[in-house]
Amino acid sequence: MTTPLIIDTDPGVDDAFALALAAASPEVDLIGVTTVFGNVSLENTTRNALRLLALLGRDDVPVGVGASRPLVHPHPHLSSAHGADGLSGYADTLPWPTRGPDPRDAVTLLRDLLDQADRPVTIVPIGPLTNIALLLAAHPGLKPKIGRLVVMGGGVNGGNITATAEFNVWSDPEAARRVLVEEDVPTTLVPMDLTRRCAVSSQWLTDLAGTSPVARTLVGLTPDYLATYRRFLGWDGMAVHDAVAVAEAVRPGLLGGTPFPVDVDCSYGPNRGALVVDRRREVDAPKTLDITMEADLDGLRAFLFERLGALGVRQ
Fold first, then answer.
1. Residue 240, Cα to own-chain centre: how many angstroms?
2. Which BP terms from GO are recorded (predicted)?
3. 54 burial type by CB count under 10 A (0-12 exposed, 13-18 middle, 19+ buried)
4. Residue 314, pLDDT above cutoff 70
């Protein structure tokens, strides 16, 4: 039996690979996508999500438009590793969708999909957690319908947007704290410590592009992102952060997790958005998160290649 899956996203190059992995995986049934500000503006993330689903032959999936800004403080305007349009300037290489966004906003769409589900739904938030915080605040009675949150975000040993904060958590720390610290929904956190180690090489991308026209289009979205990660990594490759989280949703247990108590720094200082992980084993905490820090990296890359390389076959 397939697992119903919803992806909350801010596409984003690695988000594109994440959506493609969900579309290519028979273990899950992608029943909805919700969009949020983040890598680029909400207008761009929504357009990118719709066009990516068109590329993947999944125009049937409803797309709910979500939050355009964080819960409390305005989002700083910074240049994006993903290019001005979120997809390295190549968003226009994607097909136009056959329909627009769902008339329901993201929270209403999430509510309806959860309410209608006949089995627990996995939600994979791979952008700022604003939509998920709003859902849990407005509709706490629906929490039993959520089988698991698989969240890409946070850095256990430091950040990427600041010295201590990872981009998704930093973008809306108050929302992240609500979801990761205050709520009692089963949650797996996939931090950048692991996703960065799962980076793929430019040769991996070249080989993937040779598998199908769909894969070639997907790889064609990577130039700006790849150029940024060449500097970040110090070698010719790029991280596919969000696809790693979807891989865990597709195959629960693929990533090795350890439960830890956490907090999120919501102060307005240099540590704003930092994930605070208490690794003292003797601590008896009321809530822990399953934080994935280990994986068979070569096996994970092979899994991603196998699934994404089959996209053209599935069209």
1. 10
2. purine nucleoside catabolic process
3. middle
4. no
Separation in Å, CA 172 to CA 84, 116, 180, 237, 256: 21, 29, 12, 28, 27
Q: Is 73 a catalytic residue?
A: no
Q: How far is CA 130 from CA 10, 95, 252, in A?
A: 11, 29, 24
Report the distance separating Cα 21 and Cα 300, nearest Å: 12
Quote the percentage of the chain above a pLDDT of 90. 93
The predicted pLDDT at position 69 comes to: 97
Please identify which of the residues 75, 77, 82, 241 carries the catalytic annotation: 241
Predicted confidence (pLDDT) per residue in 166-211, tens digit: 999 999 999 999 999 999 999 999 999 999 999 999 999 999 999 9
Q: How many residues does the chain have?
A: 315
pLDDT digits (tens, 9 = 90+) for 109-150: 999 999 999 999 999 999 999 999 999 999 999 999 999 999
Q: Which ranges in the chain belong to alpha helices (H)?
A: 13-23, 42-55, 106-116, 130-138, 167-171, 173-177, 192-197, 202-209, 213-219, 223-233, 241-250, 297-309, 311-314
> What residues form DSSP beta bridges with 190?
152
Which CATH class for the 3-314 domain? alpha beta
Separation of alpha carbons 220 and 218, rounded Å? 5
* pTM of the predicted model over 0.90: yes
- Cis? peptide before 299, omega within 30° of 0: no
Q: Whole-angstrom Cα distance, residue 61 to residue 48?
A: 14
| Residue 279: predicted pLDDT | 87
Q: Which amino acid is at 82?
A: H
Residues contacting 264, CB < 8 A, separation 6+: 154, 169, 173, 176, 177, 180, 181, 273, 274, 275, 276
Mean residue pLDDT of the chain comes to 95
